[in-house]
Amino acid sequence: MPELPEVETIVNDLRPRVEGRRFTAVSLFWPRMVLEPPVEEFCNRLPGQAISEVARRGKYLIFRLDSGEALVLHLRMTGSLLLRERNASGSEPVKYITAIFTLDNGLELLFRDRRKLGTASLLTDEREIARKLGPEPLNPGFTTAVLRERLRNRKAPIKAVLCDQKFVAGIGNMYADEALFRAGVHPLRPANSFSGDEIKRLHRAIREVLRKGIANSGATFSDYRRPGGERGNQQNAFYVAHRGGQTCCVCATPIERISIRNRGTYFCPTCQGSATCS
Ligand code: ZN
Prior knowledge:
The two termini are 31 Å apart. By secondary structure, this protein is of the alpha+beta class. The protein has helices spanning 4-18, 39-45, 127-130, 144-151, 158-162, 173-183, 196-215, and strands spanning 23-28, 34-36, 51-57, 60-65, 70-74, 79-85, 97-103, 107-113, 119-123, 256-260, 263-267. It has 7 helices and 11 strands. It has a 5-stranded mixed sheet. The structure holds zinc ion. Residues 248, 250-251, 253, 268, 270-271 line the site of zinc ion.
């Protein structure tokens, strides 16, 4: 599932090619992906609007429009956004397309989504999505003190808390597992059980794994692709995420997989200590 680094990569790739362009048409092959406004209105209102900026908030992709509105996409589990020449000769037909957004420069954006859980909204005020989200972990305002304060009253396992978009935006299964490995923290530790030093380590680890994920253009395990169709590289750099059955590259202990609130969670039982002691 695309997380902050994957969505940031998509934004970085799209920016130079779509900013300043105008939507000329939209074709929906899975109209249920549109959350708001009603589908017909969505299809009428978008064409003609120019993209002033492409941005990310949490795992949301935002196309800010010159009207002040915003086209907001969420890729959920299996969505990706491909940019290609319209009717490119020789291009292979793409499966699982749920929407095509046509631009005025001969390019089109294809929303490809095998499980069809991705969404699109045309919002008059994009702050609507900000209300559902916690702080951006890479913003300067997300300090160790902010993390400490937010952890204080949370008793849930730290893995579940890190994946809660209201706690901090953009982190999901993969980067939560990696951050906990890097911080040397067991994923089942109650979020309010950390010492000051551990919170510092966790804060640094969160930022490091996200930055590394962006530098490696995201992780491709199944569906995620960059807009040009390329895979990311971060999957080769993970220490624990999706590495069940392999051994820890630090201590050679087999990496374990457990389920925490229905999330597959990978960790090294040696490097990441115990679930209870602090
Ligand atoms: Zn280890």
